Amino acid sequence: MKAGMAKDSLLVSALNACRSRLTAFIRGRTAVREDADDVLQEITWQLMKVEQPVENIAAWLFRAARNELTDRARKKRELPLSAFSSADEDGDFPEDELAETLFGVAQTPEDDYLKALLWEELNDALAALPPAQRAGVVVAQTQSGVVPENPVTQRLR
Q: How far apart, in whole angstroms, are the C-alpha atoms of residue 73 and residue 69?
């Protein structure tokens, strides 16, 4: 027990000795301060989990930071749909236009045809989903509190 505590205190003291340089290294390679703090926390956790002795802790920390930064850069980040679209000259967003097409009153025969086509495709996509995912769509539709009457929600019921 004492050997483990001595190892941990040695690691913590080595980490504290190079923390400022390591933090500057990580922050120089990240755009957001919170990401840098997350990387520092992750490599600190990795250091505490290391089972084999580490001869040069500072070098190990910088290598682990570089590897963690590389891993995070390779990982795909989720972006909200609004990040991919921008308002047009009228200030309308594409998702507003889609909602209007699906749930609005058709003004022209072309609008009516487009609405029917979109609902048909949504029905086909819903039918292709596995039962568990289909149930997720049902929950998402019903928990929003707004369940418009349309072919998809009729089919869900």
A: 6
- Where does 9-78 show beta strands of DSSP type E? none
Residue 110 reports pLDDT greater than 70: yes
pTM over 0.70: no
Q: Do 43 and 69 meet the contact criterion of CB atoms below 8 Å apart?
A: no
Q: Rounded mean pLDDT of 46-56?
A: 85
Residue 23, C-beta contacts closer than 8 angstroms, at least 6 positions apart? 36, 40
DSSP calls for 80-122? -GGGT----TTS--HHHHHHHHHHSPP-SHHHHHHHHHHHHHH
pLDDT for position 1: 44
Where in the chain are the domains? 2-74, 93-156
